[in-house]
Amino acid sequence: MLPTVIKIENLSKYYRLGLIGSGTLREDVGRWIAKMRGQPDPLLKIGEHDHGNRKDGQIWALKDISIEVKEGEILGIIGRNGAGKSTLLKILSKITAPTEGKIKIIGRVGSLLEVGTGFHPELTGRENIYLNGTILGMSHAEVTSKLDEIVDFAEMDKFIDTPVKRYSSGMTVKLAFSVAAHLEPEILVVDEVLAVGDAAFQKKCMGKMSEVAQNGRTILFVSHNMGSINRLCTRCVSLEQGQLKYEGAPSEVVSSYLSKGALEKGKSIWITDLDSDSDPVQLYKVSVTNSKGKVVETVRSDEIILIKFELTVRYVLPEFGLSIKILSSDGTTVIHTANILGSSKMAPGKWVTQCEIPSNSLNTGSYTVNVAADIPHREILFDLNDILSFQVLGVSENIGRYPASTWKGVLSPDFSNWKEWECIPDVNGQ
Question: For residue range 145-154, what is the model confidence (pLDDT) as tens digits?
């Protein structure tokens, strides 16, 4: 039996809210008034749901988590925004301390939690490699022996002597991952940060993590990409409201996470303070409706699916872009589309739009929705994963030996206009 390298017992993390002001007297007073009235926090951020573990200015980000991780395992960690995933990784990386519980870790931990984690912006890429190696307890000679391999993997040979502060986010992630993977920590902790890199590099990273695990090292991997979780991980856990919800084989945990209420079904609503000027745009509702405008959790495959977005614009925007991803239960991106809502300026106020998915498009199964918005070429306003889910039910009849519900694939177009068979005469004209 493989030895246990991480043992987490009854781990909890508690935060007191409001010890540090919001930054303005107006917002602090508004938050206090809401509290006195028994209303939700008006400054709750987009994508941050007010869980049941938030009470009287207090929140348990994690509550009674117990997990064991074996040597060489790749443990996937999934959950909604605010479920406690990043808090767990920060505790394991010794960035923050737990409130309760015990953690036993055998081996050095290399972490990649945020863009630029462990990098000094004023130092060059080369100097930061040596800095990270020193932090991990490696000698100068040991780091030197790995230097060329790190630089080659990160594709950074032209920029390795440039200060990190001049790197793009993608360049920083490439180098940070390469450093974390090649300096040989016994335990590698990777957050969703890999999503910043390009698709080719993400694939390269997945291959490297598999290689690392085969060499006996342990990986903890947080991702919203269920396909990556299924392909890469040997075991998976799901967190919900700071608690361990599911644990087991990746396919089983992912399926449970998507189908048993871990996500909002049909619609998601966020608290919004119309008088706040903290964000230029605030999303306050996303819903799945049928052609009659009724919010639904389940849609027939022969029905039109409408995804409706409602948001508040706080001040004039010269341009605004909204994009959505719809993913199948295995993490495959089925639809990825964007809409520039207006090339002309958008005035302050409430705005509504909807995306129509034609009937007979999606196969039977569970689907999740991601949404992002930006001011094109200037600023990302929000980027939210797994905000809601919906089910598509097949209604077509059995064809041949296959029941309608078992046809493979994510698309199920209507081919009723398939051309009839036509007999082609042979060369002899018969």
Answer: 989 999 998 8
Beta strands in 241-362 (DSSP E): 243-248, 267-269, 281-289, 298-300, 305-313, 320-328, 333-342, 349-357
Alpha helices by DSSP H, 120-168: 125-135, 140-154
Dist CA 40 CA 34 (whole Å)? 7
Q: How many residues does the chain have?
A: 430
* 255 and 272 part of one domain: no
Assign 177 to helix, strand or coil. helix
Residues 285-307 pLDDT 10s: 888 988 888 888 888 888 899 99
Biggest CA-to-CA distance, the chain:
92
Nearest partner of 348 among 314, 371, 322, judged by Cα: 314
Here the tokens at position 314 are: 């706080």
Q: How far apart are the first and last CA of the chain?
A: 71
Q: Among 259, 278, 298, where does a domain finish? A: 259
Tokens 């999606």: give the residue.
Answer: 362
Domain match, 141 and 59 both: yes
> Which residue from 254, 214, 238 is spatially nearest to 80, judged by alpha carbons?
238
Token pair, residue 51, equals 């869980």
> What contacts 326, CB < 8 A, 6 or more positions away?
333, 334, 335, 336, 357, 367, 368, 369, 370
What distance in Å separates the CA atoms of residue 87 and residue 252, rounded to the nearest whole number?
24
Q: What is the CATH number of the domain that holds 53?
A: 3.40.50.300
Kindly state whether residues 156 and 285 are assigned to the same domain: no
**Helices (H), ranges, 2-84:** 25-36
Indicate the pTM of the whole model.
Answer: 0.64
Domain carrying residue 327: 267-396
- Show contacts of 115-121: CB within 8 Å, 24+ apart: 115/169, 115/172, 115/173, 115/176, 115/193, 115/196, 116/164, 116/172, 116/176, 117/176, 117/193, 118/176, 118/179, 119/164, 119/172, 119/175, 119/176, 120/164, 121/163, 121/164, 121/165
pLDDT digits (tens, 9 = 90+) for 396-409: 544 444 455 556 77
Output phi, psi for 284, to 5 deg.
-125, -10
Beta bridge partners of 237: 77, 247
Contacts of 324 (CB under 8 A, 6+ apart): 307, 335, 336, 337, 338, 355, 369, 370, 371, 372
Question: In Å, what is the CA distance from 347 to each residue of 110, 313, 320, 351, 391?
Answer: 47, 7, 11, 9, 36
56: left (phi over 0), alpha (psi -120 to 50) or beta: left
